[in-house]
Design brief:
Elements (H helix, E strand, L loop, with lengths): L15 H4 L1 H9 L8 E3 L7 E2 L7 E8 L11 H18 L3 E11 L5 H18 L2 E9 L4 E9 L16 E5 L4 H10 L6 H8 L7 H7 L4 E5 L3 H12 L2 E4 L8 H10 L3 H7 L5 E6 L10 E7 L4 E3 L15
Helix pairs in contact: 3-4, 5-6, 5-9, 5-10
Length: 325
């Protein structure tokens, strides 16, 4: 092949500019099924979503290329799944069931249309897994890929579980995996692509969506999505509830696979578990040990005060992710 010869128009990939705004929307929505909560889906000025409870739980997240994801580390489908998962985890953290999602996609006009379609495929895949509908959104031009997702949820008659309800005497428990995404990020940062289990955990989080409503039904007093790190996010609960939380390391599960990866990289697996973000596990407080539901793991206690400690002492080192830090 002659390296000096430019590709002909027939050789190049079809871009989003070639397809056009409405053509792209048509491609990514055609033939997609919606859950019963979607009364009117994509195609009109706005969607209509059932809200039988009379209240709607809403949350928004923005993912920026180069900040939240890299397409040399993740496939577009992985990124689409992640964009949906990080939003629906917030809905579950309120004790609600995800019902609908609105997506805004900004990207350069030269973006391969196949990339945009794969992003959408990942979004639909994760939405279906949680039983929610992708009901609308917008696409615009930009200098880089930016994904904005708004998730809606249904409390099904229950009170929302906020960050501000923890009480002295409560126990702290978690559901979902911790430290896996941090391990995957560390592996990718060293230029490796395996072990696949930890790299995959960074690429696509696995929030325990059902655990949120389960905790609400069990009487959880406070709950939060672990997105920035367990200690950092428990700090939000401690602050909002005006309590102190102590995490016991002998109770926090550290998977053997994380220990092996940490040993290979010269890292600390327990540090990943305590401070690593992006797993989107759930952390909650319950009024007594007996109230902790099956599938949740008790890891600490709530007392009077306003701090987060580990084994009774302040944790040395950073506790989690902060933007602009």
């Amino acid at each position: 092949m002659d390296g000096d010869r430019g590709a002909s128009p027939h050789d190049r990939s079809e871009t989003v500019a070639d397809v056009g705004e409405f053509g792209l929307i048509g491609r990514v929505t055609a033939g997609r099924a919606q859950p019963p909560t979607t009364l009117l889906g994509p195609g009109d000025d706005a969607a209509v979503v059932a809200a039988a409870d009379g209240r709607v739980v809403a949350s928004t997240d923005v993912l920026v290329e180069g900040v939240h994801f890299r397409l040399d580390w993740s496939t577009p489908e992985h990124v689409g799944q992640k964009a949906i998962a990080v939003n629906m985890a917030d809905i579950a953290a309120m004790g609600a069931v995800p019902t609908a999602l609105l997506v805004g996609l900004a990207c350069p006009k030269a973006t391969d249309a196949a990339v945009a379609e794969a992003l959408a495929a990942g979004m639909w895949k994760e939405a279906v897994r949680a039983g929610a509908g992708l009901v609308g959104g917008d696409v615009v031009g930009a200098d880089q890929i930016v994904i904005s997702v708004t998730a809606l949820g249904d409390l099904q008659g229950r009170a929302p579980v906020t960050r501000g309800g923890a009480m002295p005497g409560d126990v702290v428990a978690v559901a979902g995996r911790l430290g896996w995404a941090a391990a995957g990020l560390a592996v990718l940062g060293r230029g490796f692509r395996s072990p696949v289990t930890v790299v995959g955990a960074y690429r696509v989080p696995d929030p325990p969506y059902a655990a949120g409503p389960q905790a609400s039904l069990a009487g959880a007093t406070a709950m939060i999505d672990v997105s920035d790190g367990l200690l950092a996010d428990l700090g939000h609960v401690a602050e909002e509830s005006n309590v102190a939380i102590d995490v016991r390391t002998d109770l926090v599960p550290v998977h053997q696979r994380l220990v092996e990866v940490a040993s290979a990289l010269g890292a600390d697996a327990r540090h990943w578990v305590l401070t690593g973000g992006e797993d989107h596990a759930l952390a909650a407080t319950f009024p007594e040990p007996a109230a902790v539901p099956e599938g949740w793991t008790t890891i600490g206690t709530v007392t009077r005060g306003n701090s987060v400690t580990v084994d009774g002492k302040p944790y040395e080192g950073g506790t989690g992710w902060q933007h602009w830090r």
